[in-house]
Amino acid sequence: MHAMPHEHTHAPTDPRPRASLTGNGDDPRAMVVIFLRGAADGLAMVAPVEDDAYHLARPTLGLGRSSGVRLDDQFHLHPELATLERSFRGGELAIVHAAGSEDQSRSHFAAQDLMEHGGLVAGGWLGRFLRARADGHAASALSAIAIGKTLPESLRGAPSATVIESIDDFGLGADAAGYLAGLDALWSLETGDLGHAARDTLDAVRRIERLRATPYTPAAGVDYPNTRFGRGLSEIARLIKARVGLEAATLDLDGWDSHLAQGSIMDPRLRQLGTGLVALHHDLGALAATTTIVVMTEFGRRVAENASLGTDHGRGSVMFVLGGGTQGGRVIADGADRPWRGLATEHLEGPGDLPVNNNYRNVLAPLLRRHGATNLEAVFPGWSAKPLAI
Amino acid sequence: MSLSRRTLFRLGGVATAGTALAGCDTLIETVFPGLQAPASLTGPFRVPQSDRVGRLRHVMERLSFGLRPEDWHRALDTGGGDEDTAIERFIDQQLHPERIDDRRADHTVRRLETIRLPQRELFEYQPRLLLAELTRHALLRAIHSQRQLHEVMVGFWTDHFNIDISKGDCEHLLPAHDRDVIRRHALGRFPELLRAVALSPAMLWYLDGRVNRRRHYGDQPNENYARELLELHTLGVDGGYSQRDVMETARALTGWHVRSEERFAKGKIEFDIEAHDRGPKEVLGHRLAPGRGEQDTHDVLRIAAHHPATARHLASKLCRRFIDDDPDPTAIAVTARAFEESRGDIRRTLATLFSTDAFLRARGTQLKRPFHFVVSALRAIAADTDAGEAMQRYLLSMGQAPFQYPTPDGYPLEPAPWRGTLLWRWNLASALVDGRIDGTRVDRRRLEDDLVGPSGVAAHLLGRRPSEAEQVAAHHAADPLALLLASPAFQRF
Fold first, then answer.
1. Which whole-number Å values give the CA distances from B296 to B6, B227, B286, B301, B306, in the listed order?
2. ipTM of the assembly?
3. CB contact under 8 A, B416 and A190
4. Do A179 and B483 touch (CB under 8 A)?
5. Alpha carbon distance B467, B49 (integer Å)
C-alpha cells in the first residue's frame, strides 16, 4: 500500500493564482466535523427499543419502549436529543447506526488516531481531502480551522490548518489601520502572481478586521448552548457566514467515557449536542444547504450495562450527518456487507459489543464527494469505499 | 527541570541525584562543558549601502535561512573588506560545518532531552512531546546555528526523503532518524545517505518496507518504497525506469522488518532471509545473482545512487533550491557532472553549483517558504524565542509544520502553493514586533543600537537601501519594523 496514491507528480495546470481569502473560488461548501471524544454510547443516543435483548442487557440504563422520540419502527432518539427531531423529519438529518472503525483495541487513543488518520497512513483524512482539493494551488489561509487548543489528527497534512479558540485570536495589533495602509502601499507596486495574492489577502484582512470589530449576533431565534462547545459552534457559523474561504472546521465535545453513572455523564452532553447542532444549522440559514455537519466518535460501548450504572468500551456507535444536501430522515443500521441483526448475544462481537456494520469511511465518502473530492482513494488510501446513499 | 530523573541516574558517577536537582543548568555545564553559551556579539555592525542587493549578501542569503544583524559585517571582515574574498571564504566555511564553532546553537537546544535519546528509549515518550521537541530543535538550530548551509541541507533532505511523523511507529522513530540519518549525512556522500535512509526504521515504516516480504510462493512484494526510491529519491519520474524495474527493485528489497515487540529491541531493523525473495533479479539493466540475501539491497541502492538520471534529478532539485524555480539548463548540467564525477559527494556538487553564473545572477528571485520566512524573520531581528507552541502554530497555519507532510514527495519547492500564506506572514510580522507571541521576545533597543538606527535596521532587513516607495510606505505605520518584515522584498531571498 502506498502512503498516498501517485497524485503528487503532476504539476498544477491552472496558472491562475488562487485568491488567498477564498482560495476555493468563492465555493461556499464547508464541512464541520464534531468529534465526541471518549466513546459516546450509540445505543443510548439512538436506542433499539423494540429489541427485547436491548432491555435485557440494559435493565437500568435502557430507554423505555415509549420514551424518547420515535424515529422508525426500531429506533428511538434519546429524549435529550429531542431537538433534532425536526431536522430528522425534514429529511436534513441522517443517522447511521452501528458505525465505527475496524479498530479492535478498544483504546481511546489508538482508536481516535486510527479513525482520524483514516487507517495506518500518514496524515489525517480531512487534511488529505483538503490537500487533494487544493491540488498544488494555494489554499485559502483560513481553509481549515480547528476550534480549540490543539490540532486534531484528522487535520494533519492539511495545506493550511489554523488552531484558534476564536477569530478574535487573529489580530494586527494596536495600529492595524496604519499597518494595513503601509501594506497596501508596499504591495501596490508588486506585479505578478504574488502581487495578485497580496491584493486578495488585503481584502481578506479587511474582512477579518470588520468581523472582529463587530460582536457576533446569531440569526433570530438561534440560541447556542452557553458552553465552550456552544461558543465554538457559533464561531464556526460566524466564519462560514463571513465567507472567509473556510472549507473545513473541527470541534470536539469531550467527556463521553461513561463507565460510571452514565446518565449524569451523558445527559448534559446530549443536551449540548442536540441544541448546539440545531442552533448551528438554523444560524447558517441558506448556507446550511452547502454546509455538512458530521458527528463521530471513536467507538461505542458494551451492550450490557455494568454494575456501576455505566457501560464499558465497545465497538459500533452512531454517526449523525446534518445539512449540506443530506438525504436524511432515516436511521441506516444495515451495512454494505452486514445487516443489522439486533442485540441478541449470538450477534454481538467480542465481549458483547455491537459489531460495526458501517465503517465510518463509507459514511464520510458521500459527504466528501459532495464537497468536491474526486478521488476517494486519495483521502482513504488502500480502502475501497462503498459510499452510503445519504 | 532540564534533566530527567532517569538521565540523572544514568550519569550516576558525576553527581548524586539529591544535589543535582537543585541546579540542573550548573550540572549540565559540568557534564557537558561545551554547552556553555558563548557571549553574543555586539554592534555597531555595518550594513549594505548600495541600492541593489550585492554579491556577498546574495550568496549569504542563498546559503542560509537569512542573515542575523552581525552576519554581513562579520563575513566582510573575514574577507578583509574584499567582497570576492569574503564570498569565497564564506562558501568554503559553510561547506565545512565541522570547522565551525556552534556552541551558541548547542546551548539553545540543551534542554531538549528527547533529541539526544537512543532509539529504543524514544518508545517511552509521548508522541506529542517527541514531535514538539523535534520541531523546536529544527527551529532553534535553523535560527541559531552558524552552520547555516548544513541546516539548509538538512531541510532539503528532510523534504527529499520525506517521512510524516504521524504514520504508525514513525512517531517514535523520527527523532533518531533526523539525528542519525539526515543530520549526519546532510553534507556527506549521497550513496551513504541513501543507504542510511533505506535502512532507517522510520523509512521502513513510512513506506512499508517492513512489510515487503515473500514468505510463500505467490506472495507479491510491497512496491511502495521501491517506487519512491526510483521516482523520488534517485532517478526521478522521467529517469527512464520501467514498471518492471520497480517490481524487481521491490523483490530485491524483500526481507527487512522493524522489531516491535521486545522492549529492548523495539525499533531495531532485522533482515529475515526467510522473507527474502531468493530468485534472480534484473534491476535497471543489472543482473542480481540468486540467493544473495541482503547483498541485493546494497547492490540496488548502489545502482540507483550512481545512475546518471539520479545525478540529473538531484542537480535539478538543488538548482531549484539555490538558483530559481526554472533553473538554467547549463547550471543543471554542470552540477550533475560534478555529482557524477565526485561519486555523489554533496559538498563538491554544491561547490560547483555555487560557482555557476546562474547562481550568482539570480538575486531575490525565490519566494521563501513559510519555515524559511519564520526563521529569517527571527534571525533578522535577533529575536529570543523558545520556538514553542505559539511559534509552531504559525507554521501550521502556513502549512509547513516540520515532519508533518503526508505524502512522500515532501513540501513543494515551487512557489505556487505558498502564495496563500501572506495573511499569516503579515500577522506574524506584526505579532512578533509587538511582542504578542508567547515565548518570543525582541530587544528593539539593542537591534537599533547594533545597526545604528532605523535606517540601518532597514538596510539590514532588505540587504540594500530601502527604495523610495518602501520609505513612503513605511511612514503609514507608527512602527515600520513589522512592515519591513511583511514587505515583498523580505518574502524573497
1. 41, 16, 11, 9, 16
2. 0.87
3. no
4. yes
5. 12
pLDDT confidence of residue B38: 67
Q: What is the CA radius of gyration of chain B?
A: 24
The torsion angle over the Cα atoms of residues B481, B487, B492 and B493, rounded to 10 degrees, is: -30
Residue A330: strand, helix, or coil: coil
C-beta of residue B356 within 8 angstroms of C-beta of residue B330: yes
What are the distances in angstroms from CA A324 to CA A136, A170, B329? 26, 28, 50
Residue A25 has pLDDT above 80, yes or no: no
Rounded to 10°, the helix B83-94/B71-78 angle is 100
| Average pLDDT across chain B, whole number | 92
The DSSP string of B116-134 is GS-HHHHTTS-HHHHHHHH
The pLDDT of residue B408 is 93
Enumerate long-range contacts of B296-303, CB under 8 Å, 24 or more apart. B296/B252, B296/B253, B297/B198, B297/B199, B297/B252, B297/B253, B297/B256, B297/B271, B298/B195, B299/B252, B300/B249, B300/B252, B300/B253, B301/B191, B301/B194, B301/B195, B301/B198, B301/B229, B302/B191
Question: What number of residues does chain B have?
Answer: 493
Evaluate if residue A9 carries a pLDDT over 50: no
Residues A115, A103 contacting (CB under 8 angstroms): yes
0.95 exceeded by the pTM?
Answer: no
- Per-residue pLDDT tens digits for B82-100: 999 999 999 999 999 999 9
Q: Which residue has the cell 498516498?
A: A4
Pairing state between β A331-332 and A358-359: unpaired
Mark yes or no for CB contact B416/A136 under 8 Å.
Answer: yes
Distance CA B218, CA B335 (A): 44
Measured in angstroms, the CA of A29 and the nearest CA of chain B are apart by: 19
SS3 assignment, position B422: helix
Residue A18 pLDDT? 40
The answer to whether B474 touches B480, Cβ cutoff 8 Å, is: yes
- Reported as a single tens digit per residue, the pLDDT across B199-212 is 999 999 999 999 99
Instruction: Name the E strands within A40-115.
Output: 46-47, 69-70, 76-77, 93-100
A194 and B367 in contact by Cβ < 8 A?
yes
- What are the pLDDT digits (tens) for A181-235? 999 999 998 988 899 889 888 887 888 888 888 889 999 999 999 999 999 999 9
On chain B, the residues whose CB falls within 8 A of the CB of A162 are 393, 396-397, 424
Q: Name the CA dihedral angle for A231, A233, A237, A238, rounded to a multiple of 10 degrees.
A: 30
- B30 — pLDDT class (breaks 50, 70, 90): low
By CB atoms closer than 10 A (0-12, 13-18, 19+), residue B209 is buried
From the number of C-beta atoms within 10 Å of its C-beta (0-12, 13-18, 19+), residue B5 rates as exposed
pLDDT, average across residues B159-180: 96
Best mutation site among A24, A180, A186, A191 for testing chain B: the one with the most B CBs within 10 Å? A186
With cell 542480481, the residue in question is: B288
Amino acid at B71: D
The CA radius of gyration of chain A, in Å to the nearest whole number, is 22
